[in-house]
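Hey, why these numbers?
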Amino acid sequence: MPRFVRTSSFPETPGDLFAWHARPGALTRLTPPWRSLRRLGPEVPLEEGRQVHLQLRMGPCRVPWTALHREVIPGESFVDEMLVGPFARWVHRHGFRSAGEGAELSDDIDYELPGGALAGRLAEPWIASMLERDFAWRHDLLRRDLERHRTFADRPRWRVAITGGTGMIGRQLGAFLATGGHQVHLITRNPRPESTDIGWDPSGRRLDVTALEGLDAVVHLAGEPIAGRWTTAHKNRILRSRVEGTLLLSQALASLKRPPRVLVSSSAIGYYGGRGDEPLPETRPSGTGFLAEVCRGWEAATAPAQEAGIRVVHIRTGLVLTPAGGALASMLLPFRLGLGGPVGSGRQFWSWISADDLLGVFHHALGVEGLRGPVNAVAGACPNRDFVRTLGRVLGRPAVLHMPAVVVRTVLGEMGEELLLAGARVVPEQLRESSFRFQHTDLESALRHVLGRARS
């Protein structure tokens, strides 16, 4: 029977590693971004006999996966056994033991492939390679998350509420904070029964204000997606969702008897407009264009919270590197088909940040008391032609097919003009001055991390 084992050492104790795995959000954090695996139903405690119901997407198929928690020994080990799923057998033993001054984590998997011995022999090399890729990423992700959490380990855990908590970034941020021991509440239009969710309806100007009392922090991520052609109606939804939602939240926080100490609110580097190769720290003025208008209104809407003495941080996010969604995800298929290449002149600057570094920026903004105002969430900036060349190299594909600017303008209109053709060379001055540590400052290493493409 095939067996996979991966073992890594950590400076934490076995109890610390077990506790991280037992907290809400562990599965979300440990699922590589290139894997489509989602939990069905509510979070399940890591307890003997509990079942976890999942759905795995394999190409066009959605495959159910039910796992049983058993042999749970707090601080030492637990087993996940597949009851329903794509394997004939899958038993995953998680072990935590002392090793030197720290602890050793072991993922030990016994599995059997369906289809008999011949099918197993044919598929085994592919499965072994897949497990090696996934678990190398998992152990690296765990190491990096634990390192982030050590930054504020000497402080009490926070009660944090998040709007947009079911989106691509919000879901990962909530999981990151929860696995660090913080208490996370979602501010959502659809509160789940028997949960700590907080109800709101920005378009109807409704928010459960009493549920906000006593929070330590609020992270505001909600807003209408900007992808798609910018019709007049779509642009109006984009602008209103950000300005009106932010204003409603800020006014509610300002009215509290015990307001949170910090509001971390999303913004974007679209604030600067298209500025060529001009370096753009946070002190530079806003530019022109629709996104600049949106960002100005978005940030201004936090005024009630600032006037009430709440520390407010605006995270101006660049291009987020993750295959789970956004710009990079939309580029992957054409690049894998060998159809990628420079956009327009290729000279426009694209300012980027890995998804995990973006979570680190939000964490940093929550914990660093002296940080306030705009914060450029970018780790690097390079001309588009260098970006696509690097992506092609990571994927092992050519990146030479040029997309003329006229095609971008014809197909995508104003959105293509502002997001793809109008570059901005953004500088993370506030993060550097506040001693933030990026995990990925080199574009190729960042892409290899998020795509699971280790150097051969």
